Amino acid sequence: MTGAFLTETFGGRDAAVTLTRPTGAVRMVTLFRERALELDCGASVRNVRVAFRTWGELNAAGDNAVLIMHALTGDPHADSWWRPLHGPSRALDPQERFLVCANVIGGCAGSSTPAELGGHRLGIFDMARVQGELLSHLGVSRFDVVGGSMGGMLTLACLKLFPGQLKRAVVIAAPQRQSAWAHGWNVAARAALALDPARGLEVARMFAMLSYRSPLSLELAQSGPSPLGNGERAITTYLTHHGAKLRRRFTPESYACLTQAMDDFEIDDLTLRTNRVLTLVVGISSDELYPAEEVRRLAHKLGESTYYELTSVDGHDAFLIDTQALGAQVGRFLRLGDDAC
Ligand SMILES: CC(=O)SCCNC(=O)CCNC(=O)[C@H](O)C(C)(C)COP(=O)(O)OP(=O)(O)OC[C@H]1O[C@@H](n2cnc3c(N)ncnc32)[C@H](O)[C@@H]1OP(=O)(O)O
Ligand SMILES: N[C@@H](CCO)C(=O)O
């Protein structure tokens, strides 16, 4: 990774976490200064900081924007974590579109952290409201929205919150609500955090990684001895590596807040049935977390939707890994003529 880096310490004596993250081109804005943001939990907050990046130019009508929603541990650097989809002639093309990607509130990549927002329970709809406010602040009148996993939930929330401003939506590997299976992984993760915030975050990432891959992908890539040559099995050092890596770039506080928001999320049947926004719903054939069948059921309930199934062995995270066919589908969909929207 190139560019400037910022090192910050979050949390108290027992849960101090030092993060080093890139800051290149990230912009900050404070929203809800005069009018408060009313949270779904009933509390209201002011002075909400949003860290975001943009690429390309907003046109005079303010209607060529694409809002990119990141997943659980993502950040505003969509050109990094979605590099194969981002760039000239790709699905998210800054030469044609004004691209915006913002860290969700409650995250730890520059936007207001849970503690800065008073420790109130944050919801996916609260996060989506803030992203909508950011677009208004930037002068956007109409937009497309794209997101995978938690980003897909945020995209579904936009269908309910901004139906008149949305042109197209792409919902990837996301459910109508968390199944007991998906919720259960997060319950176990938060239990690990409660025992020991920093070590618990590593352990939470270890079992989350299992849910983000498929049995076959792990068998193919991680079934032998570790490439580290330390006598361990590959899967052991693989999970240890990913646990330690998340601990260096994320906070237990944000992990608990965002997984709780995912567990609380639900998009109602009426919103789905009455949707008039052109929507592409993508399921992943090997997704263990949100099985393709579950995502297909969501698509069948959703008005104006098309379902596409990405065939991949890579499991839930295939939307970040197996990007060639996905990029082609998303690019084609986002280029559907505006007169169709
Ligand atoms: C969507 C958003 O908004 S952002 C969030 C996306 N980013 C993440 O999820 C961050 C975590 N990273 C990942 O999950 C993955 O790296 C992805 C999804 C980005 C890419 O997936 P893949 O290419 O299949 O990577 P894979 O799962 O093999 O992991 C690669 C890493 O594991 C390491 N690794 C692989 N096998 C082993 C092993 N047996 N032992 C130790 N380390 C291993 C690699 O060296 C590499 O390390 P690095 O990331 O520090 O360079
Ligand atoms: N791998 C993703 C979560 C699942 O989509 C992330 O770390 O944000």
From TrEMBL:
Residues binding substrate, per UniProt: R205, D317
One Pfam family from the record: Abhydrolase_1
UniProt keyword terms in alphabetical order: Acyltransferase, Amino-acid biosynthesis, Cytoplasm, Methionine biosynthesis, Transferase
Ranges of residues in domain AB hydrolase-1: 64-317
Cleaved signal peptide residues: none
Record field: catalytic activity: L-homoserine + acetyl-CoA = O-acetyl-L-homoserine + CoA
Subcellular location, record wording: Cytoplasm
Source organism, top-level taxon: Bacteria
UniProt EC number: 2.3.1.31
Pathway: Amino-acid biosynthesis; L-methionine biosynthesis via de novo pathway; O-acetyl-L-homoserine from L-homoserine: step 1/1
Gene Ontology, cellular component aspect: cytoplasm
GO BP, one annotated term: methionine biosynthetic process
An MF annotation (GO) of this entry: homoserine O-acetyltransferase activity
Bilayer-crossing regions: none
Residues forming the catalytic site: S149, D287, H316
PANTHER family: HOMOSERINE O-ACETYLTRANSFERASE (PTHR32268)
Subunit architecture: Homodimer.
Known role: Transfers an acetyl group from acetyl-CoA to L-homoserine, forming acetyl-L-homoserine.
Family classification: Belongs to the AB hydrolase superfamily. MetX family.
Protein name: Homoserine O-acetyltransferase
Organism of this sequence: Deinococcus peraridilitoris (strain DSM 19664 / LMG 22246 / CIP 109416 / KR-200)
Upper lineage: Bacteria, Thermotogati, Deinococcota, Deinococci, Deinococcales
